[in-house]
Amino acid sequence: MNKQERIKQFIAHFSENMPEAKTELEYKNAFELTVAVVLSAQCTDKRVNIITKNLFKEMPVPQVMAEASIDAIFDLIKSCSYPRNKAKHLSGLAKMVIADFNGKIPANLEDLQKLPGVGRKTANVVGSVYFDIPAMPVDTHVFRVANRIGLTKNAKNPLESELQLLKLFPKEKLNIAHHWLILHGRYLCKARRPECERCGITSICNYFLKK
């Protein structure tokens, strides 16, 4: 099976079975989403949602976070992974948003990546989820699932995987395909024990067909 046939069947399956896939992070605006995505690095969305519920009560806007001490931010996010580094990033992020972007999260990928703690993947998530910019953020789930199924080939890192997937998916499907891959990896195509018996795309999956 060639990649074009595989991607056609992949899109058909998830369009029918997961037509409204979206991020599981909870947010009300671009600032909240950006903060949540920064916190989500090596941390579950479930944990991040618990943290941000209290964080956004205390620091609902960039101005408040920018004026807060790093220790104050740390105290509110300390149950996530690498809280000290993330507290520094969030402090710097809020200050830059105020100083350089008129208090608003920038709506383009280049400026997003200027923010402390925001790399290519985080910028792609915020850009695609909030600003509807066609993008393919690649996290561990996307990287693993795309490789297992056979959507990517010999991708050595997230960037190589991203570039292959950008070429493979139709532009209008990129943003939802990102969620399809994440959710499939999170709940079925797990790292240690993929639940192939529950999977609806085994007929197009290289990993399953080679078992």
Computed CA radius of gyration, to the nearest angstrom:
18 Å
Low-confidence stretches: none
The CATH superfamily of the largest domain appears as: Hypothetical protein, domain 2
Note the run of SSEs as H and E.
HHHHHHHHHHHH
The count of β-strands is: 0
Overall mean pLDDT stands at 96
Q: What's the architecture of the largest domain, going by CATH?
A: Orthogonal Bundle
- Number of helices, counting only DSSP H or I runs of 4 residues or more: 12
CATH fold name of the largest domain: Endonuclease III, domain 1
Strand coverage percent: under 5%
Total domains, how many? 2
Q: How far do the termini sit from each other?
A: 16 Å
The description of the largest β-sheet is: none
Structural class: mainly alpha
Give the C-level CATH assignment of the largest domain.
Mainly Alpha
Oligomeric state of this protein: single chain
Helix content: 55-70%
What gross morphology would you assign? elongated
Q: What do you see in this structure?
A:
The protein is mainly α and 211 residues long. The chain folds into two domains: 3-21 and 135-209, Helix-hairpin-Helix base-excision DNA repair enzymes (C-terminal) (Endonuclease Iii, domain 2), CATH 1.10.1670.10; 30-129, Hypothetical protein, domain 2 (Endonuclease III, domain 1). It has twelve helices and no strands. It has helices at 3-17, 30-39, 45-58, 62-67, 70-77, 83-100, 109-112, 120-129, 140-149, 158-168, 174-187, 206-209. The longest helix is centred in the middle third of the chain and has 18 residues, at 83-100.
